UniProtKB/TrEMBL annotation:
It is found in: Cell membrane. It comes from Superficieibacter electus. PANTHER family: PEPTIDASE S49 (PTHR42987), PROTEASE SOHB-RELATED (PTHR42987:SF4). Belongs to the peptidase S49 family. InterPro entries: ClpP/crotonase-like_dom_sf (IPR029045), Peptidase_S49 (IPR002142), Peptidase_S49_N_proteobac (IPR013703), S49_SppA_C (IPR047272). This is Protease SohB. GO terms for biological process: proteolysis. It holds the Pfam family Peptidase_S49_N. The chain crosses the membrane at residues 6-29. GO terms for molecular function: serine-type endopeptidase activity. Residues 161-309 form the Peptidase S49 domain. Residues 2-157 form the Peptidase S49 N-terminal proteobacteria domain. Keywords: Cell membrane, Hydrolase, Membrane, Protease, Serine protease, Transmembrane, Transmembrane helix.
Length: 348
């Protein structure tokens, strides 16, 4: 018995030491991360990527002897370019192609639109160097979400228009509800033929467990200061007055949504399209919701002639704990989006 007691005490000491080491490691990691920058800005030259792909495909069509000659010429060319760049760097000259630039941003929105944190950094970075002859293309994918989140995202895009820099939004899959709120800020909206567009409406639902709790003889007390501090609740008994106020708030939000879209696209028959319905790209063109039917790939390829196309991404650094909790939240969010899309769309 004494042996078991000593063994248990020994295990307790080991566990204590391991936990202490783990806590110290977490503290060190957090302190290290605080010292780092909040994120990293990455710029990718899409024009160069396309050019390299094109050259690689052209080389693959040559015979073996021609391929050897081509690779030799490419090696010589790259060596000369590196030599020129080095000479310019020594003289303090900036390497500038002189071509107008197309700044490409990506926004794949979730229900809470937390991606706006990266979007605001990307837009700030682009506006710090963009010239009047440049333009911005946003590749957008979102079924919408919370009003305040997507309202902020739309306001971030408005910063580009306020600087008189042409803004194009391309949609390959979906820009509905809050997603369309963002898209309509653009000077031009480009949509793939079968992309989902529109859904200018507002929806909210609240489950209520009051009857279930009553059946279990559980009372819920809710105290508020202010007549409409709570309209509908999860656990308390909802009133018809509260329901009416909740519907009024929804209608008011819908009216703000409609006014915003109408202000961004004055030629749009807002009463015809603000019914909460959605359309495919070709139908959306007929209704005036978009301007061009095309994929984002085709649109960007068309812009590469005489322009330099650059993709800008801001990658946020996540804390150690956020990496675990964030991945679970993202999975749940993607599941909700899939349910929404399946519930709204027929399967083919």
């Amino acid at each position: 018995m004494e042996l078991l007691s000593q063994y248990g005490l020994f295990l307790a000491k080991i566990v204590t030491v391991v936990v202490a080491i783990a806590v110290i490691a977490v503290l060190i990691v957090n302190l290290t991360q605080r010292k780092r920058q909040r994120g990293e800005l990455r710029v990718t030259n899409l024009s160069e990527q396309y050019k390299e792909m094109q050259e690689s495909m052209s080389a693959s069509l040559l015979d073996e002897h021609q391929q050897k000659q081509w690779h030799k010429a490419q090696k010589k060319k790259h060596k000369q370019e590196a030599k020129t760049a080095k000479a310019q760097a020594k003289l303090g000259e900036k390497a500038d192609s002189g071509k107008p630039r197309v700044w490409v941003l990506d926004f794949k929105g979730s229900m809470d639109a937390h991606e706006v944190n990266s979007l605001r950094e990307e837009i700030t970075a682009v506006l710090s160097v963009a010239k009047p002859q440049d333009q911005v293309v946003l590749r957008l994918e979102s079924p919408g979400g919370v009003v305040h989140g997507y309202g902020l995202a739309a306001s971030q895009l408005q910063r580009i228009r306020d600087r008189q820099i042409p803004l194009t939004v391309t949609v390959d899959k979906v820009a509905a509800s809050g997603g369309y709120m963002m898209a309509c800020v653009a000077d031009k909206i480009v949509s793939a033929p079968f992309a989902i567009i529109g859904s200018i409406g507002v929806v909210a639902q609240v489950p209520n467990f009051n009857r279930f709790l009553k059946s279990k003889d559980i009372d819920i007390e809710l105290h508020t200061a202010g007549q409409y501090k709570r309209t509908l609740t999860l656990l308390g008994e909802n009133t018809e007055e509260g329901r009416q106020k909740f519907r009024e708030d929804l209608n008011e939000t819908h009216l703000l949504f409609k006014d915003f879209v109408k202000r961004m696209r004055p030629s749009l028959d807002i009463d015809q399209v603000a019914t909460g319905e959605h359309w495919y790209g070709s139908q959306a063109l007929h209704n005036g919701l978009i301007d061009v039917v095309s994929t984002s790939d085709e649109w960007l390829l068309g812009l590469m002639e005489g322009r330099e196309v650059l993709n800008v991404r801001f990658l946020q650094r996540k804390k150690l704990m956020d990496r675990f909790t964030g991945s679970a939240a993202d999975s749940a969010d993607r599941l909700l989006q899939r349910w929404w899309q399946r519930g709204q769309q027929p399967l083919s």
